[in-house]
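Dear U.,

For the methods section draft, I wanted the exact inputs and outputs in one place so we can describe them consistently. I've listed the two proteins in the order they'll appear in the manuscript figures. Please don't edit the token lines directly; just add comments below if something needs changing.

First protein:
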Amino acid sequence: QFLMANKLDTAMWISRLFTVYCSALFVLPLLGLHEAASFYQRALLANALTSALRLHQRLPHFQLSRAFLAQALLEDSCHYLLYSLIFVNSYPVTMSIFPVLLFSLLHAATYTKKVLDARSSNSLPFLRNLLEKLNANQQNILKFIACNEIFLMPATVFMLFSGQGSLLQPFIYYRFLTLRYSSRRNPYCRTLFTELRIVVEHLIMKPSCPVFVRRLCLSGISFISRLAPTVA
């Protein structure tokens, strides 16, 4: 009754579980490397479906207007719909599947707990314990996802020069990264950029750091800071 009363949430729960399943079989290619590539695409397509459903839930009345598009781009679900479309037809990159896997796992775990609560307050204690441990590590998981989002930017450039990526991919991914940096719901990308800057500045200001390395890093920090969008 609980699942039928919340059909859209249940559909997203199932698609997230399927995303976790496909992502796991890509990261751990138990069925062979050829099959792993197909699971990579399935995971991203399932994530695109989940993101589209979530976006529909947040903005149920679609309008073909600039205002609606601007509002949609503020939603994290729109960000990851774009993310899935960026990588679904690209060369499989293990780093790119982790945000999809971990976000799906976190959201699926939250809804699984609701399903267990609807069934019985004491049902499946072992599973409940696993879900509690996952929830306790949520902050570290979100930081790890943000780290993946950031370091995928140079990875897309490297893929371009190695012949495994398209010319447009780095530019589209840069747009995705600016959306993540400006996210209202998830500040971890912005926070991690700040933390990385502090760590790098601390290291290069040590007397043992060569002058040319310090200048190179400061130039890089200045360049990245200019590219960062203004956050309200």
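Second protein (the one for the lower panel):
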Amino acid sequence: VLENQDLQDSIKPQKVEFHSLNFNTTLHWQPGWAREARDALYFVQYKVYGQSTWQNKDECWGISSHVCDLTHETSDIQEPYYSRVRAALAGVYSSWSLSCRFTPWRETVIGPPTVTVTHSNKSITVKLQAPRSPYKRKRGSTIPMTNYYDLLYQVFIINNLLDEQHRVLVYEGKEKVIEVQDLRPGVSYCIVAKMYMPMLDHSSAYSSRQCTVL
């Protein structure tokens, strides 16, 4: 029995955490500290905070992976959720390891917008597209993150002659197409953008840079 108890403790999953980007939400954990723990299988359950019964996540029941997709299970984005994981090895089950409480609307990370750039001889036209959630409208298109939050686009220009790191904010607002004017022909300019949420004072990461020579 003691050996079983030791095995139970040593295969118990560690660091059970929700990771979420644009409401694409996965549960991650690390194997227990025993060397054999890498052969363990894992079982995932979840529930809304305040519910008494845990739900099994069928696709993550007896898996060898250390990650489980809970996007669909956490689609009520204002609700707080918990998840828990246990491991099994050689017929021995560990106790459950519990995640922290996770509320998608508060805690998902908002990704950067998609940026496309076209130019004329003295100006750059920037087209912006907000990141999309995994959730769909009735017609089948995915719902942009701007439906869930009051988000602004922030557009920055980098003049490569001056300094790679010197980003100048040229626009902040909700327009999806903007024009940056009075630029110098023959100069290489790069555009990066991010999403900004005034209410929580959060910013996304920068988009990948789009460069052009006028």
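Candidate sentences for the figure legend, describing the second protein: Residues 2-11 form the longest helix (10 residues). The first strand starts at residue 14 and ends at 21.

Thanks,
Y.
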